[in-house]
Write a structure and sequence with these properties.
The protein is 35% helix and 19% strand. With 391 residues, it is of the alpha/beta class. It has 2 domains: 6-218, Spore Coat Polysaccharide Biosynthesis Protein SpsA, Chain A (Alpha-Beta Complex), CATH 3.90.550; 224-362, no CATH class.
């Protein structure tokens, strides 16, 4: 029987220096029935020349857009126009192991109730050298080190709360991915939105506890170069998840939404934030260590809003926040009183909605994206810390 076709989609924009490695890895898969589709989003560098080097391989198809579609538009075009029963989104700067497609497609073929199968990955630097400590830290941070090989016991939590599933090391069943999975408003959080929509189908996910891909960490990543786009998309995704009746119970169980007031008239300084704001951030950061996002909006009544995951009892350990709390005489996972909200009430959901609508018009201070731990910076100029968006 002929094996099903798999579409390896490589969306790219001005990454000619890394694209060659990605193409070599895609065309070097041990799984024979593949098509490799490069989705060139109107690159202005040597991307066409790199693709031309591989033109003799009949499995390669290059689509060059005349205008830039953006991240989500490029993904949507690729998924809509590929021919595979399954597809994956290989980043143009990452490298897949030869057995990557074969291993994950085998799991999908064995279980028709799976919408996706994914694996762990290693982290490499811009030169392709493996970063052992970063690899281990990444798996711990996104709790893949707690996952066992097989079906996920709690797909929703792994995908939306823990964000354990890296889009780059996932193979999807194309017919099962809903048409709503690619929303331009999700922006830099397009992967979170995609997995949220996959969870809503009611299908399952399978984890393969192997590192079958190399994720490249470098300064040109989106979380370093476009911090506002990343946070804007994150807030959009959380707002919709919190408004979704099927997800509110999950977020109440695993997350805490807190806010703390800032001064009515902040005093800006050279860093683009205020002394009062930085003090409030410090209070929030003294709470749980897995803070997900912090943002502020004028329409929220000059409040800082923070979202973080709440560890389950079996996951809890001696976090930095716990140690600080114990030193100060508090409980192991206490949150500062001024930052505590007892539940996810409708007023809190409205605050998230207001913050989302503010972003394009007033460019509020999206202060700290805790899930990738970038340093506070002046978002007007895009100044940030190192890119830590590895997943």
């Amino acid at each position: 029987m002929t094996p099903p076709l798999v579409s390896v989609l490589i969306p790219t924009y001005n990454r000619a220096q890394y694209l060659r490695d990605a193409l070599v890895s895609a065309l070097g898969q041990t799984y024979a029935s593949i098509e490799v589709v490069v989705l060139d989003d109107a690159s202005t560098d040597a991307t066409p020349d790199v693709c031309a080097e591989f033109a003799p391989d009949s499995r390669l198809r290059v689509v060059r857009h005349q205008r830039n579609l953006g991240l989500v538009g490029n993904w949507r075009y690729g998924v809509s126009n590929c021919d595979g029963k399954y597809f994956c989104l290989l980043h143009d700067d990452d490298v897949a192991d030869p057995a990557f497609v074969m291993t994950l497609v085998t799991r999908l073929e064995q279980d028709e109730q799976l919408i996706l199968a994914f694996c762990d990955h290693r982290v490499i630097d811009s030169d392709g050298c493996i970063l052992g400590d970063a690899t281990a830290a990444c798996s711990r941070k996104f709790r893949r080190d707690r996952l066992r090989d097989g079906r996920l016991p709690d797909f929703a939590r792994s995908a939306v709360v823990d964000r354990s599933i890296p889009v780059v090391s996932t193979v999807f069943r194309r017919s099962a991915v809903p048409s709503t999975a690619f929303d331009d408003r999700a922006g830099g959080a397009a992967d979170l939105w995609l997995f949220y929509q996959c969870v809503r189908t009611g299908l399952a996910a399978h984890y393969v506890a192997q590192e079958l891909l190399s994720y490249r960490l470098h300064s040109g990543g989106m979380s370093a170069s476009r911090p506002i786009a990343m946070e804007e998309g994150w807030i959009y995704c959380w707002r919709n998840a919190l408004d979704d009746p099927s997800f509110v119970h999950l977020l109440r169980k695993h997350s805490t939404l807190s806010e703390t007031p800032t001064a009515a008239t902040p005093r800006p300084n050279s860093r683009g934030d205020s002394r009062e704001t930085r003090k409030s951030i410090g209070r929030l950061r003294s709470g749980p260590s897995d803070l997900r996002a912090v943002f502020a909006s004028p329409r929220c009544g000059n409040r800082i809003v923070a979202i973080w995951s709440r560890p389950s009892p079996q996951d809890r350990g001696p976090t930095n926040g716990a140690r600080r709390a114990r030193r100060n005489g508090g409980s192991a996972h206490s949150v500062p009183q001024e930052a505590r909200v007892p539940s996810l009430g409708m007023g809190r959901l409205d605050a998230i909605g207001d913050a989302t609508s503010d972003i394009r018009d007033t460019n509020p201070s999206i202060l700290w994206g805790g899930w990738h731990r970038r340093k506070l910076g002046n978002l007007q100029t895009g100044e940030t810390g190192t890119d830590h968006h590895a997943r």
